Amino acid sequence: MKLKTANRLKNMDGGSMIDLLKATQIPEMISFAGGFPAPELFPSEEMAEVSKKILKEMPHIALQYSGAEGYLPLRKHFACRMEKKVNRRVSTEEILITCGSQQGLDFVAKAMINPGDTIICESPTYLGAINAFRAYEPSFVEIPTDEHGMILSELEKALAVCGNMKFIYVNPDFQNPSGRSWSLERRKGLIELAKKYDTLIVEDNPYGELYFQGSELPSIKSMDDGRHVIFLGTLSKILCPGYRLGWIYACEELIQIFKTIKQAADLQSSTISQIEVCAYFDAYDIESHISSIKKVYSHRKNVMIDAMKKYFPKGVTYTNPKGGLFTWVTLPENIDAAVLQTEKAIPRKVAFVPGESFYPNGKIKNNFRLNFSCMPDGKIVEGIRLLGEAITEYME
Ligand SMILES: Cc1ncc(COP(=O)(O)O)c(C=O)c1O
């Protein structure tokens, strides 16, 4: 039978990523490709304790259906986290629990985008957001970025001319893929422009709490008057991704819309995941867990940067992130990172994500993303040595 699939599938490209993920599963592959947190740092013993307790004490609630908006005590925890981030009272009515922030991206797109609408985003931007938005058939306007964030004069030019513009998507803290963070000035400038052009901002912020020194910069949501910013949060990088728990923080009117979408999409996030995580928050100190994982990630990032200084040839540059999970490498312009990957890196059993897929309109080929959170020191050094060898051979 010929499958009569929907037109929207033409816009969605999962193929190259699936091939890459297959390649990274080859035994002995040193993979800097995934955006994975380090599994050895998951608080598995603590989670085993809470899981046992929940199943013993409240199985009839934990194993049952529950409300689409999410488990109230967990929404309270998320509202409290947000209060610290935005310095004002946050009501549980402004929080909806999602299956990770990836579902938040899908819901925002489902609620906002008609085919042919325009989305503004950073260039480069998070691949998973591009894929989530693409399903709803928008066109993308990419705004160039530098080490301080989006270039706001370019953003304003785009805002002035874009028809059917639905939202500006940003990942302002330790961005995936570049590892860069927006300066305070750019954050303030963005919110001013959103107000001037009466535009919605989607702030996707999985990495803000993973800063290696100093303190967190104010979130864009903290500068909002309440209606211009949708904030997407997640436990994936600060606790673990396996529970698939994230949240949307937005005005009540939007949360009601997302609740309707949630009901239609999957009824609710897993009841038992929500209750277990809530019990973990009650019994243990998540802040001290976050401090301990940050120390490891900061150390691994330094190991990777030192190795790149030693082994990467001249003409190759990279970001030195102050938090998060990624660094972004720029090769000389004539080098295609995807070809480097297939012809030189995979045969040496080392993998990364070629940069082209982080540009929704394609064309830029000479970047790649490296993840530093997931490999022990020795493998980071060996992987970067092999990668340096691969780049040098390709350049020759
Ligand atoms: C910027 C960004 N947004 C969203 C996600 C989705 O994360 P999750 O659905 O696990 O919360 C990721 C995952 O890597 C990410 O990097």
Description:
It is globular and about 60 Å long. 44% of the residues are buried. Helix 5 packs parallel to helix 6. By secondary structure, it is α/β, with parallel strands linked by helices. It folds into two domains: 139 residues, Alpha-Beta Complex (Aspartate Aminotransferase, domain 1); 239 residues, Aspartate Aminotransferase, domain 2, CATH 3.40.640. The chain starts with 14 loop residues before the first helix and ends with a helix. It has an eight-stranded mixed β-sheet with strand order 2-9-8-7-6-3-4-5, with helices on both faces. The chain has a four-stranded antiparallel β-sheet with strand order 10-11-14-13. Strands 1-12 form a two-stranded parallel ribbon. The model has no long low-confidence stretch (mean pLDDT 95). It contains 13 helices and 14 strands. 43% of the residues lie in helices and 15% in strands. It binds pyridoxal-5'-phosphate.
Strand composition percent: 5-15%
Count of domains: 2
* Spatial strand order of the main sheet: 2-9-8-7-6-3-4-5
CATH class of the largest domain: Alpha Beta
Distinct small molecules: pyridoxal-5'-phosphate
What would you say the CATH architecture of the largest domain is? 3-Layer(aba) Sandwich
Q: What is the terminal separation in angstroms?
A: 50 Å
The helix/strand order is HEHHHEHEHEEHEHEEEHHHEEHEEEH
Instruction: Report the mean per-residue pLDDT as an integer.
Output: 95
Give me the Rg, rounded. Answer: 21 Å
What is the strand tally? 14
Spell out the CATH superfamily of the largest domain: Type I PLP-dependent aspartate aminotransferase-like (Major domain)
Mass-distribution shape? globular
